[in-house]
Amino acid sequence: MGVKASVAKLAVLTLPIAVSAMVISVATAQTAPPSNVIQRQDGMKAMANSAKTINAMFKDTSPYDANAFKAAAETVRAHSGAALSALFEGLVTTQGSKASANIETERQQFDKLANDLGIYASALSAVADRNPHALGPETRMQGGEAMGGGPLARKVDAARDVASMPAEHAFHMMLQTCTSCHVKFRIEAK
């Protein structure tokens, strides 16, 4: 068998494999979520993991490590505010996304929550700088301290109030911000 015949036979044998790979590639491209959705999901996972890290230190189920605490707070800060809002520009309801169309219609509220998240995370980052060895009593919530009040209480304003609250309270407000955003702007799987 000559070289041309060998090449032709090889091409005939590998053609079905190449076509199969191309079909799989096209099918995957059609079902894969857009890159901004993947970035959103990766950012949300990073923030959730960071919140778990901080929570474990506040609950004393993990030893306090100022560097890890700061890194976790900075991760949340980096994925919040304008960075988070930018990932939800334009049409937010798309394949692979759990984002609600409410983001588009209530953009100002979504952006405020994204900004508040960054404010609380920045405050927690600063706490790590001020507390290199331990989370002191001044960083902890005191018994009976309100976390945001009831329906008649003054509403918490992150920018105004974060400096006057203990770090643990800021952490709880950060979690409450995440929860508020998910309740309002995330579609739950049925």
TrEMBL record:
Residues 1-29 form the signal peptide. InterPro entries: Cyt_c/b562 (IPR010980), Cyt_c_II (IPR002321). The keyword Signal applies. Gene3D superfamilies: Cytochrome c/b562. It holds the Pfam family Cytochrom_C_2. PROSITE patterns: CYTCII. It comes from the Bacteria. One of its GO terms (biological process) is electron transport chain. The keyword Nucleus does not apply. Keywords: Signal. GO terms for molecular function: electron transfer activity; heme binding; iron ion binding. This is Cytochrome C. It comes from Pararhizobium antarcticum.
